[in-house]
Amino acid sequence: MWRFVIAAAVVLLSVAAAAAEVVPGRWEKVQALPADTEVWVTLQSGERVQGWFVKLNDAHLVLAGSGGARLELHRSHIQKITGPRKPRRRFWTGAKTGALAGFGMGMAIGLAAGDDGIWCDITAEGAGIFLGGMLAGPGAIAGRVLENSARRPDVYYQAVFP
């Protein structure tokens, strides 16, 4: 039973991490952007340029700058392309959600395994409450960490460095 729970958690976390990452040197995420998406471009020189995505062709990234100016940036001069930083949510939202999820998972596991005799003389309800309490803390920590990581700007492109 525990092996299944641990394996399921590892698979879910690894799938979520893989879906969020950008492959260095690949332009697919930039090509998929809708027109007028706000982007921040970091050039190889370290300069940062803000604009709104217009198009991407074989040689250039075309942005609409402030005041309607059209910017054409050569693809080889681009180090990184990101979206704007996401707004901050309430401080404890992720922690509360994680604690509730951890408590719920602990209750479900405890209720499912409580009458199997592995908990000595503890009833299924007691095992559920015990495991729910044990998993609420790690759930709160995981929820807070995930909330902070969700605030990072989306990375659409990252250059490959030699």
Care to describe what's here?
- The chain is elongated.
- The protein has helices at residues 2-20, 28-31, 93-113, 124-150; strands spanning 38-43, 48-56, 60-64, 70-74, 78-82, 155-158.
- The protein starts with a helix and ends with a strand.
- By secondary structure, the chain is an alpha+beta fold.
- The chain has a 6-stranded antiparallel beta sheet.
- A hairpin with a 4-residue loop joins strand 1 and strand 2 (48-56).
- The chain is built from 4 helices and 6 strands; from the N terminus they run H-H-E-E-E-E-E-H-H-E.
The main pleated sheet reads as:
6 strands, antiparallel
Secondary structure tally: strands: 6
What is the gyration radius calculated from CA atoms?
Answer: 23 Å
**Which secondary-structure class do the elements indicate?**
alpha+beta
Helix content: 40-55%
Cα(first) to Cα(last) distance is 46 Å
Query: What shape does the CA trace take?
Result: elongated
Low-pLDDT runs: 15-19
SS strand fraction: 15-25%
Number of helices: 4
Strand order of the largest sheet: 4-3-2-1-5-6
Order of helices and strands, N to C? HHEEEEEHHE
The overall average pLDDT, rounded, is 77
Features:
alpha+beta; six-stranded antiparallel β-sheet; 162 residues; elongated
How do you describe this structure in short?
The chain has 162 residues and is of the alpha+beta class. The chain is built from 4 helices and 6 strands; from the N terminus they run H-H-E-E-E-E-E-H-H-E. The chain starts with a helix and ends with a strand.
